[in-house]
Amino acid sequence: MDEEYDVIVLGTGLTECILSGLLSVEGKKVLHMDRNDYYGGESASLNLTQLYRKFRPGQEPPSTFGRDRDWNVDLIPKFAMASGEFTNILYHTDVTRYLEFRQIAGSYVYRDARISKVPSNNTEAVSSPLMGIFEKRRAKKFFEFIQAYDFTNPATHQGLDLNTVPMTEVYKKFGLETGTQDFLGHALALHLDDAYLTQPAKETYERICLYMNSMARYGKSPYIYPLYGLGELPQGFARLSAIYGGTYMLSKKIDEVVYENGKVVGVKSEGETAKTKAVIGDPTYFSDKVKKAGQVVRAICILNHSIPNTADADSLQIVIPQNQVNRSHDIYVAAVSYAHNVSAKDYWVAIVSTLVETAKPEEELQPALALLGPIAEKFVDITDLYEPTTDGKAEGVFVTKSYDATSHFETVCQDVKDVYKRVTGNELKVENMVKKQEEGGAAE
Ligand SMILES: *[C@@H]1O[C@H](CO)[C@@H](O)[C@H](O)[C@H]1NC(C)=O
Ligand SMILES: *[C@@H]1O[C@H](CO)[C@@H](O)[C@H](O)[C@H]1NC(C)=O
Ligand SMILES: *[C@@H]1O[C@H](CO)[C@@H](O)[C@H](O)[C@H]1NC(C)=O
Ligand SMILES: *[C@@H]1O[C@H](CO)[C@@H](O)[C@H](O)[C@H]1NC(C)=O
Ligand SMILES: *[C@@H]1O[C@H](CO)[C@@H](O)[C@H](O)[C@H]1NC(C)=O
């Protein structure tokens, strides 16, 4: 510990672990510390004993839930797009050698008070119960347009230059209903709100292509998830880091971050100071450098049956677009089961989350909870969201963001890329593992 490091990372949440993994692989000397005696911080996976200790102090888990060791319940569940940036980073760092991924069995969206599979191409659009007969034809034409679009070939543009026209114009051209726009924008393009409608359509086009490419990879859904839960990721990164000479330390109380002339020079823990020029940390280590940016409400629900109307799916995501339930933020459901070794046999864990909008957060989850059928046990958690107040360059202290309500890794990836750039001064470049639809020089 009495040494000099290129970077010291505080907290073993997913974002910090990915960053420390990327920097280790690049040859940086990394020291990674956590005040807790377990990996994962706010994004840990807990066994049944730990789960009850956190939410029902003094109460034992019921014996019907089976063996403790069969449970790995994520506090913040997230699915990875099979062809997305997060998956690219996993391959790039080679952390995949310690993890086994399985596909998520379904991707659903809520429209007019019921759920249906998200259609992801022209053939699926035609058979989707989400739309009426005429709307299906319009959606089919929209998907054909997206699949054929080539930035270098104006003949494929149908008069729409996606670099400049806003997404509303594209929807208008195909005459798509607002309910159809809801599922395209929120369940395929994974936008968090409707601000995208007035932005150039290119980003939405790229996000829809990513969904389609990811879907094409395994067939049932665009998402993948590690066996034994997300808690496997920090541990995978810790093992990886060791290979590159990095050091991971749990149960390390952080006394102080040491500065000289306004620049960070080290981190003091249990009387010893490790020297460094850069510190990365989660918001819980830097309460003086973050501001509150809202709250997330999450309900962890244990079920002894699959979710109704999902053909007995062993795992799935449901997106409830904000407009469908008269809200300003989407509601997400991420459900996994014994098929991913996160629960005892014949149990499902469904985690429902959204950004808090009212004084009664738990009631805001009701439209999603109502989809789950009988709930054997429910743990509700309301957490504050924090984001850094500065880019950290002046002091050399780079703070990550809290995890938002989404049930996918897209926003975590954005934060990873953002912090990486602030720390190194360079854009994060990872090889694209899957050939994406090329768009001739227009990229980046
Ligand atoms: C569950 O977590 C507790 C507390 O960390 C730990 O003591 C116990 O060994 C764990 N159980 C299993 C089966 O891993
Ligand atoms: C549409 O998607 C489904 C499911 O991924 C796939 O089986 C089918 O081949 C796709 N059809 C076309 C035309 O891409
Ligand atoms: C949606 O919310 C608005 C404003 O809060 C309210 O006026 C309207 O009645 C609500 N509509 C539904 C269907 O709940
Ligand atoms: C993981 O789950 C599979 C079935 O989904 C099961 O066959 C296997 O025994 C489980 N592994 C452990 C270690 O529980
Ligand atoms: C399933 O859970 C419900 C509560 O949600 C409970 O009443 C029922 O007895 C459970 N069934 C089994 C087979 O464990």
TrEMBL record:
It comes from the Eukaryota. Keywords: GTPase activation. SUPFAM superfamilies: FAD-linked reductases, C-terminal domain, FAD/NAD(P)-binding domain. InterPro entries: FAD/NAD-bd_sf (IPR036188), GDP_dissociation_inhibitor (IPR018203), RabGDI (IPR000806). One of its GO terms (biological process) is protein transport. GO terms for cellular component: cytoplasm. One of its GO terms (molecular function) is Rab GDP-dissociation inhibitor activity. Pfam families: GDI (PF00996). Belongs to the Rab GDI family. PANTHER family: RAB GDP DISSOCIATION INHIBITOR (PTHR11787:SF8), RAB GDP-DISSOCIATION INHIBITOR (PTHR11787). This is Rab GDP dissociation inhibitor. The gene is GDI1.
